[in-house]
Structure formats: structure tokens, C-alpha cells
Design brief:
The chain is α/β, with parallel strands linked by helices. It has 2 domains: 203 residues, Alpha-Beta Complex (Quinone Oxidoreductase, Chain A, domain 1), CATH 3.90.180.10; 140 residues, 3-Layer(aba) Sandwich (Rossmann fold), CATH 3.40.50. The protein has 11 helices and 18 strands. The strands form 3 sheets. Strands 3, 5, 6, 9, 10, 17 and 18 form a 7-stranded mixed beta sheet that branches. A hairpin with a 7-residue loop joins strand 1 and strand 2. Helix 4 packs across helix 5 and helix 7 packs parallel to helix 8. The longest helix is centred in the C-terminal third of the chain and has 13 residues.
Length: 374
């Protein structure tokens, strides 16, 4: 059976999100249906609208950072039942592929299908459709910009009922991606000097992660004064508007050596951004590239000799190199203990019908994180 619902879709790229009537499948075995409570508005969904990030199906229902309450549950190996509170992980984890078995759930083989649109277990089947029967793609297999969504339990993490879902939703992408970029990918150590380039929903959490890991100097870089101020509120020791100034500060703090790590979390990342971050790091330093840009862009303007002779490391980071079934719980425990700041990340809340306005605010530099409340 199908149930009527509403959701924000992109019909083509480039395009804009519009709210439309939809129909959603009942859950099959190992699926659950969830009434959404909150959804973060991540830049990656905007990449779909601009066409920087191509997807396999249009129209595509957006949203990949969300939390809600289970309304229907098929038989499933996780034991998730009606009434349970869940956070979605935008990257599923099957638990038994090579990567899951090695503790690298963020690289689970199921992730290959998150931009395709249909169920990854059945490419001929779509969870969502228009009332006229037109198939609608499901972003990351979850589509959190939909009031009622059906998802695989491989994408759901059950959490305690006392955690506010409008804050917990942020751990499904932005918090884990940024925090993990510092803690896991950059392997920040006590006393380190860290540069975070780009202070949006990801970069602000890289700042938090570096602080938790014990960095002595955390240099936040962003041209928007509001974002620099927010970075200092959440743990940055310094905030500047250019990478040139960040590099100079890092060398001052390290007797001329440079930063131990630089984390690139720019909303639309280019090769030049990576090169600027690479230049700020010391010998044997690490540059972590977390931001996304145009998928067709190739090439990094860095000197191979500097990479080789200075033994520097370039490290990609997907979902902060995290294990969502563990790390989401860990981050929520830090939140409950008052260590990880989630409330402070939400700049403004929106209704589903304001999704386009929310993304315009993001482009205008007004938001750290916008959240849709249902």
C-alpha cells in the first residue's frame, strides 16, 4: 500500500526545491516508515539542485540529515519497532561487507546506490512516486525533506526517547562529518595546531572535534564575520578571513613549521582550496578534504615535490571516516554530558514550505545550520 505525503523535490538540475504531493510505500521486511520530526539542511542537497552533484533519478526528493518516530516497521534484524525514535545515517551500513567488517561503516558497499534513486536492494522499485505514478528518487535512501518516509533499517540508528530529535537529527550528517574530520581523519592530537577552512554546518563541527581532541590552536577561516564569531563561541582559538593569515598564524605557533593539520570544509570546494590548505601544513602534516564541489572538476595545483619531499598527507573524509552505528550514539552521549554543542548549531528553523528560503539563507551566509521542523 501507499500513503499520501508531501515532500520537497528537484525536478531537474540546475533547479530549485519545490514542495509537492507524493505517495510513499509501506515498509517491506528490513524497512521502517518514519514520521519526520526534523531535518537538517545540508549543503550536499543544494549540490543536487545546482547540478554539482548529479543523481540518477529526477525528480529527486531531497534531504539526508533527519530524525523522526517510527510509525510502521517490517520484520527487521535491528529489532526496531513502532514508536521508536531514530536518527538516519545518510550512509547505510549493512554490517557484513568488507568495509563494515573492518570498522569502516562509512564506506559500506550499499553506499554505491545513495544517489541512484530507487531501493538499492531492488533497482526497479521506488519508495516514492507522484500521484500520477511518476517515480521519484530518494536522496541517500532516506529523503528527509518528506513528511513521511520509508527507509531501510541499514540507514536507521535507534536512540533514547529523551533526546530532542530536532537536535539529534544533526548527527546524521553534519556533526559526524565535521567532528570526525578532525578526530578520525586528521587524527588531531593534544597540543596540535589545526586550521579549519570554511565554517558552515560541517566546519563548525570540525572546530568542535579539534577542541575535543585537545588541539591548542584552532584557526577558523571564513570570509563571513558571523561565522568567524560562531567558530570562536564553539572552540576556535582564532578566527580569520583568509588562508594567508591562517598560514601565518600557524607558523607563528609552531616555530615556523606550519599547522599539524588543515581541514577543508568549504561549501563548494575547488582544487585551489585544497592547495591553499596543503600549503599551511608542516612536514608530515595532514590535509583533510571533506567539502564537495563540481564532480566533474579534476586536478590539484600542488607541487608533487612538496608532497613527496615534505612527506605530507592528503586525506579524503567521507562522513568523517565514522562508524555511524557507534559514533551517532557517542556524539549524543557527549551532547547529554554538555560537551558537544548541538543547540548552538541551529541558526534558524523553517517549515517544509520554506525549504527554498532556507537554502537562500545558506547562500547568503546567514546560517550555520538551518533545520526544518515538521
Amino acid at each position: 500500500m501507499r500513503t499520501a505525503t508531501r515532500g520537497a523535490v528537484v525536478r531537474q538540475a540546475p533547479g530549485k526545491y519545490e514542495v509537492v504531493e507524493l505517495e510513499v510505500d509501506d515498509p517491506r521486511d528490513n524497512e521502517i516508515q518514519v514520521k519526520m520530526v526534523a531535518s537538517g539542511m545540508c549543503h550536499s542537497d543544494d549540490h543536487i539542485a545546482t547540478g554539482d552533484c548529479p543523481v540518477g533519478t529526477y525528480p529527486m526528493a531531497g534531504g539526508h540529515e533527519g530524525a523522526g518516530i517510527v510509525t510502521k516497521a517490517g520484520r527487521n534484524q535491528k529489532g526496531i519497532q513502532e514508536g521508536d525514535h531514530v536518527v538516519f545515517s545518510f550512509l547505510p551500513s549493512c554490517g557484513h561487507c568488507r568495509y563494515c567488517a573492518n570498522g569502516m561503516q562509512n564506506l559500506c558497499d550499499l553506499g554505491a546506490g545513495i544517489l541512484a534513486g530507487p531501493r538499492w536492494t531492488d533497482p526497479s522499485s521506488y519508495v516514492l512516486q507522484m500521484p500520477d505514478g511518476t517515480p521519484v528518487g530518494q536522496m541517500a535512501g532516506i529523503s528527509t525533506f518528506v513528511e513521511l518516509t520509508t527507509v531501510s533499517v541499514d540507514s536507521a540508528v535507534k536512540i533514547d526517547d529523551d533526546i530532542p530529535l530536532d537536535k539529534a537529527c544533526l548527527t546524521g550528517c553534519g556533526v559526524g562529518t565535521g567532528w570526525g574530520s578532525a578526530v578520525n581523519a586528521a587524527n588531531v592530537q593534544p597540543g596540535d595546531t589545526v586550521v579549519v577552512m570554511g565554517i558552515g554546518g560541517i566546519g563548525i563541527n570540525a572546530v568542535q572535534g579539534a577542541r575535543h581532541a585537545g588541539a591548542s590552536n584552532i584557526i577558523a577561516v571564513d570570509p563571513v564575520a558571523f561565522k568567524r564569531e560562531k567558530a570562536q563561541e564553539l572552540g576556535a582559538t582564532h578566527a580569520v578571513d583568509s588562508m594567508e593569515e591562517a598560514g601565518e598564524l600557524a607558523r607563528q605557533f609552531t616555530n615556523g613549521q606550519g599547522a599539524d593539520s588543515a581541514i577543508v570544509t568549504v561549501g563548494v570546494t575547488t582544487g585551489e582550496h585544497v592547495a591553499q590548505a596543503f600549503a599551511t601544513t608542516r612536514k608530515a602534516g595532514t590535509t583533510v578534504v571533506t567539502g564537495l564541489g563540481d564532480f566533474s572538476e579534476v586536478g590539484l595545483p600542488i607541487a608533487i615535490s612538496e608532497l613527496t619531499l615534505f612527506q605530507k598527507r592528503l586525506q579524503g573524509a567521507l562522513f568523517g571516516n565514522s562508524n555511524p552505528n557507534y559514533d551517532i550514539h557517542r556524539q549524543l552521549e557527549l551532547y547529554k554530558a554538555g560537551v558537544l554543542k548541538l543547540d548552538e548549531l541551529v541558526t534558524r528553523t523553517y517549515t517544509l514550505d520554506q525549504v527554498a528560503e532556507g537554502y537562500q539563507d545558506m547562500h547568503d551566509g546567514k546560517n550555520i545550520r538551518g533545520v526544518i521542523l515538521y
